[in-house]
Write a structure and sequence with these properties.
β6, α7 and β7 (about 150-155) form a beta-alpha-beta unit. This protein is an alpha/beta fold and about 220 residues long. The chain is globular, with a radius of gyration of 17 Å. The protein has helices at about 5-10, 20-35, 50-60, 75-80, 95-100, 115-120, 135-145, 165-170, 180, 190-205, 215-220, and strands spanning about 10-15, 40, 65-70, 85-90, 105-110, 125-130, 150-155, 175. It has eleven helices and eight strands. The longest helix is centred in the N-terminal third of the chain and has 14 residues, at about 20-35.
């Protein structure tokens, strides 16, 4: 699985933090039902790995399900055993190194140019710029000036309003956590989660995907 190509195509990576595995699974089901098909379950969620295993057994193979906040090598190994198809780290961690060693795609956290280069040298499939919101979309453009081939994914403080700006400045995709999840991970309204997911996906559509249905029908 080419993680970078898939994230580039899907544009949105949902980041799930929840009170427990059942609620995490509810959020996964809701997001997939709304059309979000790349999801990261943070290991800060109690029972995160059981939620990943259950979601992997339940969801279609085309749905990408990974683990986030992978810090230790043991986190990477346990994630692989649960069926995670990729790993996400907040920095250049032991977990990132272990994931690369075992061949599991890694979205490795970085912020500075030095860290971005280190993540690329490690063999990460993509580089998670975190916290992107602390610097804004322009920072992505500034990083790409000397590093035009850097596979950057903007994470942290990204929402439906700013997501298109990050993509326009060169981010391959955006990772969205609390602005998307809201209170859903803690028992909040799942219908509201659906509405936020639909709005986010609409915000990142390209112009050719915005052709009205009636017009599409006329071309059939």
């Amino acid at each position: 699985m080419e993680l970078l190509a898939e994230l580039t195509r899907r544009r949105v990576l949902a980041i799930i933090r929840a009170d427990g595995p059942e609620r995490a699974l509810d959020c996964i089901r809701t997001l997939v039902g709304a059309g979000v098909t790349a999801l990261e379950v943070s290991l800060t969620t109690p029972g995160a790995l059981s939620a990943v295993a259950a979601a992997r057994a339940e969801c279609a193979p085309s749905v990408l399900i990974g683990t986030g906040t992978v810090l230790k090598a043991a986190d990477a190994d346990a994630s692989a055993a649960s069926g995670a198809s990729f790993l996400v780290t907040p920095a250049l961690t032991e977990g990132a190194r272990r994931g690369v060693e075992t061949g599991l795609p890694v979205l490795c956290g970085a912020l500075t140019p030095t860290e971005v280069i280190a993540a690329m040298d490690l063999g990460a499939a993509g580089v998670k710029i975190f916290p992107a919101g602390a610097h804004g979309p322009r920072y992505i453009r500034e990083l790409l000036a000397p590093l035009p081939n850097a596979p950057l994914v903007a994470v942290g403080g990204v929402d439906a309003r700013t997501a298109p700006e990050y993509l326009a400045t060169g981010a391959r995709a955006v990772g969205v956590g609390s602005p998307l999840l809201g209170s859903a991970g803690a028992g909040g309204d799942l219908n509201e989660l659906t509405a936020r997911a639909v709005a986010l996906l609409a915000a990142v559509r390209t112009p050719d995907e915005l052709v009205p249905e009636a017009h599409q029908g006329g071309r059939r």
